[in-house]
Amino acid sequence: MNILIVYAHPEPTSLNGSLKEFACSLLESQGHNVGISDLYEMSFKAIADGNDFRERKNPHQLNYLTEQMNASKNKSFSQDILLEQEKLEWADFVIFQFPIWWTEAPAILKGWFDRVFAFGFAYGPGAYDKGNLRGKKAMLSVTHGAPNLNNYGEFGLKGKLEERLFNIQHEKLYFSGIEVLEPFIFPSSAPLEIRNDYFENYKKRLLHIFEEPTIPFHPLSHYQNGQLVNEFRKD
Ligand SMILES: Cc1cc2nc3c(=O)[nH]c(=O)nc-3n(C[C@H](O)[C@H](O)[C@H](O)COP(=O)(O)OP(=O)(O)OC[C@H]3O[C@@H](n4cnc5c(N)ncnc54)[C@H](O)[C@@H]3O)c2cc1C
């Protein structure tokens, strides 16, 4: 299978860098093809602006969504966006490897979503279970820095990390039709032996990522006027 790792950390020798390398070696040893988008190494431009389009529908006033739809139809995005979109089309599975910064992904990854998950390419006219990237799967592999492992959780000081990740898992990935596995969450400030256990746990998950069940988000048919009306059911 084709697996793309989208990696957002500025330091190759970091824990995130190790997790990216670990996943890449393990998955290749299992016969998968692995591609990597190393956003810092690529100096990936995080700012969405008019330079993202090689031709403009309206050169006088920038409406970013209108230009995204136009560029999706005409393949007229800037080269860096087109390359990332080609990698997504190639991938059966996408792993996002990043540290939690201010409760979310580093800005360079947010910018990647803004520019690459374009209207007309990733979604539009349909979204969620009608999104354009249907058939693909993804998983977030994140590290956090909470000094006390109990900081995260239902009754923890910081609440559930999964709730912070909803905006990527549901509102970007599933919004674009991608099915999402439970995140892999690594506490970076845990003692060494616990960190080693997490590498072992990651290995166990990576060996079976194509068989793991995905998060059962509701299909659009369960909603009326934006409100959930149906009993939970996975089609
Ligand atoms: C701007 C900013 C905002 C932040 N906001 C938040 C926030 O909102 N919430 C939050 O929880 N945290 C936050 N943090 C903390 C951040 O999440 C952690 O610093 C980050 O997750 C650690 O990942 P790293 O790859 O940088 O780790 P590193 O600093 O590289 O490493 C962490 C530890 O892992 C060890 N390590 C490295 N490689 C390995 C390996 N192969 N095997 C075993 N151990 C290894 C290192 O020696 C070190 O002890 C923030 C940090 C920044 C810079």
CATH architecture name = 3-Layer(aba) Sandwich
Main sheet, how many strands, which sense, barrel? 6 strands, parallel
Portion of residues in beta strands equals: 15-25%
- CATH homologous superfamily grouping: Flavodoxin domain
CATH class: Alpha Beta
Report the uncertain regions: none
Bound molecules: flavin-adenine dinucleotide
Structural class, judged by helices and strands? Answer: alpha/beta
Helix content: 25-40%
Number of domains: 1
Short overview:
The chain is built from six helices and eight strands. It has helices at 15-29, 64-74, 79-90, 107-116, 161-173, 192-206; strands at residues 2-7, 33-38, 93-99, 137-144, 179-180, 184-187, 223-224, 227-228. α4 (107-116) links the parallel β3 and β4 (137-144).
Write a structural description:
The protein has 235 residues and is of the alpha/beta class. The chain has helices at residues 15-29, 64-74, 79-90, 107-116, 161-173, 192-206, and strands spanning 2-7, 33-38, 93-99, 137-144, 179-180, 184-187, 223-224, 227-228. The chain has one domain (2-228): Rossmann fold, CATH 3.40.50.360. The strands form two sheets. Strands 1, 2, 3, 4, 5 and 6 form a six-stranded parallel sheet that branches. Helix 4 (107-116) links the parallel strand 3 and strand 4. The two termini are 24 Å apart. Residues 9, 14-16, 18, 99-103, 143-146, 188, 195 line the site of flavin-adenine dinucleotide.
